[in-house]
Each structure stands twice: as structure tokens, then as C-alpha cells.
Amino acid sequence: MTSTVTPAIATAGLTKDYGSGRGLFGLDLEVEAGEVFGFLGPNGAGKSTTMRLLLDLIRPSAGSARILGLDTVADSLAIRRRVGFLPGDLALYPKLTGRAVLDYLARLRGGVDPHVRDGLVARFEADLDRPVHELSTGNRQKLGLIQAFMHEPELLILDEPIAGLDPLVQQSFHALLAEVSAQGRTVFLSSHTLSEVERVTHRLAILRQGRLVVVDSLENLRRVAVQRLDIEFSVPVAADEFRSLPGVTEVTVDGATVTVAFAGSADAVVKAAARHQVQAIRPRETDLEDIFLRYYRAGAPG
Amino acid sequence: MTAPTTRLALRLRLVSTISAGAGLIAVQIVVGALFPAVGHTIGKLDIPKGVAQLLGGADYGTITGWFRSEIASIYGPLVIGAMAIVSASAITAGEEQDGILALVLAHPVPRSRLIAAKGAAVAVVVVAIAVTTWIGMLCGVAIGGGGIALGHVTAYALSLAFFGFAIGALALALGAGTGDRSLTGGVAAAVGILGWLIYGFAPLVSALGWLRYLSLFYYYAEHDPLTRGVGAVDLLVLAAFAAVMVVVAMVGMERRDLRG
To answer: Is the pTM here over 0.90, yes or no?
Structure first.
């Protein structure tokens, strides 16, 4: 991918080898400015390792990365001024109240507009008066999000941001991401489930066992996704008629209704169905979770 | 940029520091009150030289010997050492293992400056303990009938503070260099206790006498500030050790991967 604008994130052969096959290996990734980019993979795939490398919390074994055009090791301090970070497994000072935690982090960073902070607190309905150790996971996560956004950074690196958030707060969070993106700021967020991020991401990458499996837009991924058709017949038909068809991955029967999952063209499935009396054919919404799981399991689409 | 870190670290250590300080004052008042009745009765104990050394001479017959044995030989260095080690370990390796440092270090603050700010907090805790020891000893000595000059009590508190700086800086270096709370506390405490034992027993074996110069406790106790006032050279050695350890802490933290 070429661009005249400096990418928000660009990695070249980025590697962190922990031995025994664990870590991150040869990551080449480019995230454009203004994108909301999803970074997906099962637990232990290397998502957090990548983010920690980008923040210079750990140093690469090989390769390099640039954030907003700056080297992640040499220019780490300048980068951290312009980036907001939410770590996975967020930990805060347990004895301090939410307010004291945000005050400390704001002072440590400097240049935080109190109005922006207050706006985020109101938006997430965060509880600032109780000690952190009394807060639920979701309420702690709200504090994590507020500190990541409160200095209006150019790039947000969010590790599992939706973990523990209730659906209403998730909505607020998604709305915030849309606003941030509309302002030309970049969001790089990780998740281990696609459904958490598919509504908000423009492009996504899937990581498996420390290696990049695919980078593409949601539209393109949908195009190669497994489709499902519910075919309702007048009388029950044998599932075996569909199992052997090209592209078919799964067939289930419920009374007179056969559900066929397949990749590629629907031609063979429709023609096979036409040999019987068909009451209705209903396409199911493309389930991205299917392709997602396929990449997880196989490492490459089958 | 780093003052908030020092303030926060102090805020989190406030209760334990006040408790330790209050304990030091209370204990020394009791120790002072007991001297007129008990000190003269015990007198100078006839015990093996090494053990006597560990007990600050075991001369209970004078108020200086009484406070040297009751406070300066064990209780004072134990409290200041424990407070320095626990504080330094908690705000470096402890915060790292809890995952808090991953968030803090994503902020625009150099690791070495963060460690320096945390080191400053440990130093303040140590000074607070030394000051309360000084207050407690002045009260205890007055209650015990007097007999130790203000200048000598002050010199002792100064020695204690520098011992605390040295042990605290060692724990800071271990915590910042390894990120391992157990290792930090264990090794720093072992160095302190081993130093105390070496100070007492190394001189008994002539071939091992030199070992005592490696003990931080030697530079804290050997000059005997309660009798002889400030020992500038010993303080300088402790200060130099602390300074080197702080540099090791800053460099160690800068160079390694964060845990977690």
C-alpha cells in the first residue's frame, strides 16, 4: 500500500521472539491515518505484544516500527505524547479513587483539557468517587478509556477496549470511535472476537500464533465469507444431496428446512434444491465470525 | 512531570510511614522510661564479643549504651530498612507486576526520570523515619534522665537516614532492574541482615575481618555517632553507595522489557 500521507502505524518485519514459538514474527502492517483498524486474533496470538512494542514497553528482537512517522524506540517519548493507550488487563492504583487516578495521569501527561475529561466522564457515566478496588471490571475499564482519550491523541492504541463494558457503554464507545475517526484521528484496537469490532472497524488484520494471516477491509472479507441459505421444502429431503456439492461446508436439517453453508457460488446449491418443490429460500446474513474462525483455525483460508 | 509521581508514591506510603514513625517514638519513650530502673541493674553484659557487637556493645549501664543497644543496634535499622525496602519494592517491581507501570510508562515520561521520582519518594520516607527516630530518642533520653548530647542524637539520626538511603537505593535498583517484587524484597533484606551478621562476626575470624568493610551496617554503626558524633567518611560511603544504586536503577529500568 502506498500513500502520500504518513501512516499512523507502519511496521517492518517487527519481531519479538519469546522462544518456544511464542511472540510476534515478521509483522508487516500499515495503518492509515484516520482509520479505525481492528487487530484480531485468539488469546496469545501476539496482539498485546504488538501494542507493547509500539509503546516501547518492550523492545523488538528484530524489525522496526514507526508511529506517526517516528521510530518507536528512538522517538518513544515524542510518540507517547501523541498516543493514547489502553492496556489489556488494565490495572490502576486500587486504593485511589477514579478521580485521583485520572488526576495523576493527567498531571503525568500534562496538557489535558479538563472540559474534554469531564465530557468523557459524563459520556461514560464513570464513577470517580469510589476507590478503584471497589469498582466492577466495566467501571474500571471506563476509567481506562477516559485516560486514553482525555488528551485527544492523534492515535489511540486500545487493547481489548470492549472487555467488560455493558451494551449501552459499548454504544457510547462506538459513537466515540466514529467521532474520533471523523476528526481524522486513528484508532488501532484489538479484540479476540470479531463481533465486538465489526461495526466500527474500516479494515482489520487477523493474527494467529504471532503471524499475520490476513489484512483486508470488511467488505472484501464478507465477499469470501461463508454464506448460509435456509431452504424450506414441501417435504423433508435428504441432507446428503447437498453435502457433496462443491463449496458446501455444512448442512443441517430441521424438519423440511435444510440449512446449507457454502463458500463461493450458490449455483450448485440452488440447482440441487430445484430438483424438489421449494417453498422458500432465505439467505442468512453473512456471518463474519465464520471466516474469522476459519482463519483462526487454519491460519489461511481453505 | 515527575513531582506527581513522587507525591503519589508518598500518598500511598503515608499510613505505613506514620505508623512506623509513631511506633518508633512510642518505643523510645518506653525504652527511656525503663533505663533508670533496669539499665543500672543489667550493667555491661559479659557475653561473647561478636554477640555484644551485634547488640551495640551490650553496655546497658550508661544511657548511651542503653540506647545504642536497645535502639541503634537492631530496632532503628530494622524499621528504617524494612520501610525503605518495602517502599522501594512496592513502587517499582510491585507496580510493574500489578500491571500499573504498563499504563504509567505509556505516558510521556522517561523511565529513568520515573525511577528518580520514585527514589525521591523512598528518600522522603527514610527521612521521615529518621526524623521520628530523632524525636523519639530525644524524648526517651529526656525521660531516662538525660545524658546524650543533642548533637550526638542528631548525628545518630543522620547515620540512620544514610543507612536507609543505601538500603532503599539497593531495593530500588533491584526493583527497577528486575521487576520482581519477591526477589527485590528478599535480596535487599538478605543484604541488610547479612551485613549486620558480618559486622558482628567477621572480626572474630582474623582472615575474614576485611569482610566487614563490605557491610553497609559497618558504615552505619562502626563510627558510633551516639558517642562520637557525625562520622563524615562513613556517611560519604553510604551516600556514594546509594548514588551508584540509583544510577543502576535508572539505567536498569531504561534498558529492559517491561514485565507482563
So the answer is: no
Assess contact for B239 and B167: CB atoms under 8 A. no
**Are B99 and A77 inside 8 Å of each other by CB?**
no
pLDDT above 70: residue A287: no
**CB of B170 closer than 8 Å to CB of B84:** no
- A271 CB-near residues (< 8 Å, 6+ apart): none
Cross-chain residue pair B103–A90, CB shorter than 8 Å: yes
Q: Is residue A146 within 8 Å of residue A124, measured between CB atoms? A: yes
Do A80 and B106 make contact, defined as CB atoms within 8 angstroms?
Answer: yes
A110 vs B: CB within 8 A: yes
Residue A281 near chain B (CB below 8 Å): no
Best residue in B107, B118, B259 for a mutation probing chain A (most A CBs within 10 Å): B107
C-beta of residue A79 within 8 angstroms of C-beta of residue A151: no
**Nearest Cα to B220, choosing from B140, B141, B161?**
B161
C-alpha–C-alpha distance, residues A191 and B67, integer Å: 62
Is some CB atom of chain B closer than 8 A to the CB atom of A266?
no
* Cβ neighbours of residue A42 closer than 8 Å, sequence gap 6 or more: A192, A208, A296
pLDDT higher than threshold 60 for residue A301: no
What is the pLDDT averaged over residues A31-42?
Answer: 93
Task: Single out the residue of A170, A146, A33, A23 nearest to residue A85, CA to CA.
Answer: A146
CA distance linking residue B222 with residue B200, whole number of Å: 10
Q: Let me know: does A248 contact A259? Beta carbons within 8 Å.
A: no
- Which of B99, B106, B110 is closest, CB to CB, to A55? B106
How close does chain A come to B107, measured CA to CA in Å? 6
Q: Which of residues 42-61 of A touch B (CB under 8 A)?
A: 52, 55, 57-59
pLDDT one-digit tens code per residue, A61-97: 999 999 999 999 999 999 999 999 999 989 999 999 9
Q: State the Cα–Cα distance between residues A19 and B186, nearest whole angstrom.
A: 28
Q: Count CA atoms within 13 Å of residue A291 on its CB side.
A: 26
- Ordered strands of the A70-71 beta sheet: A22-31, A9-19, A62-67, A70-71
Look at residue A247 in the predicted model and tell me its pLDDT.
84
Identify the closest residue of chain B to A92 by CA–CA distance: B100
| Whether A107 and B4 lie within 8 Å, measured CB to CB | yes
Local mean pLDDT, 10-residue blocks, chain B (260 residues): 88 96 97 88 78 80 92 95 97 96 96 96 98 98 94 98 98 97 97 92 83 94 94 97 98 92
pLDDT of amino acid B35: 92
Share the mean pLDDT of chain A: 90
Closest to B54 in 3D by CA, of B41, B73, B70: B73
